[in-house]
Amino acid sequence: SGKLAEPEQIVVTKSVKTIVDQVDAMKRLVNEFRDYARLPAAELKPVDLNALAIDILQLYGVDDGLATHAKHGGTTIEPILDPQCPRIMGDAQQLRQVIHNVLQYAVDATELSAKKHVTLATQWNAETKRVRLVVKDTGTGFPEYILKRAFEPYVTSKSHGTGLGLAVVKKIADEHGARIDISNRVTDGVIQGAQVSLSFTVDSVLTVKTG
Asked: Using CA atoms, how far apart are residues 145 and 102, in angstroms rounded to an integer?
């Protein structure tokens, strides 16, 4: 830097950026393959899903209320956490990965949308004794072939994706005995975005409020 004429400096800067970007992409690829292939058995312990969500949201710049994740084009992430949620039996490390994967997918989905908004919510249903984690976005929604095969490895709608993100989420959900669903949010026949939800059964011993 500073030792080249401007035209050559522009070429070098552009080339270095390309190399760095490709190395980052390869690193992400390797990490996703590793996470999927070597996912250990879940070690289930009482976990506060709200506290875990707050931890993850801080990585996206969310401290309280609404916040903008500038790294992804100014997407607003809104946490709506039910204070009545009891602890669930889960592996905190694996659930952290689930929340991050689903949240990242949602934020990426809003990249080309005029309205860039993602909601991360938790809900407690005392009647069914289930805690639900729901992530909604205002993106273009899931293509039909993704809706049918979303949890299969290597199925993706992203040009830079590996198709392992939701496959890892499904694998972890199965380890936790959780139900997972994905769908498009449709109003008057128009897709308004997508939704991913996970539903966890709560043991009667753990139905004590944590909020």
From this structure: 18
Position 28 confidence tier, pLDDT thresholds 50, 70, 90: low
- Confidence (pTM): 0.70
Among 77, 81, 82, 116, smallest CA distance to 100 is for: 77
Amino acid at 104: Q
Q: Do residues 124 and 86 make contact, with C-beta atoms less than 8 angstroms apart?
A: yes
> CA–CA separation, 123 vs 131, rounded Å?
6
Q: 137-155: per-residue pLDDT in tens?
A: 999 888 887 777 766 655 4
Report the half-sphere exposure of 33 (CA within 13 A, side-chain side).
7
**Separation CA 55–CA 157 (nearest Å):** 28
Query: Which one, of 74, 130, 122, lies nearest residue 98 by Cα?
Result: 122
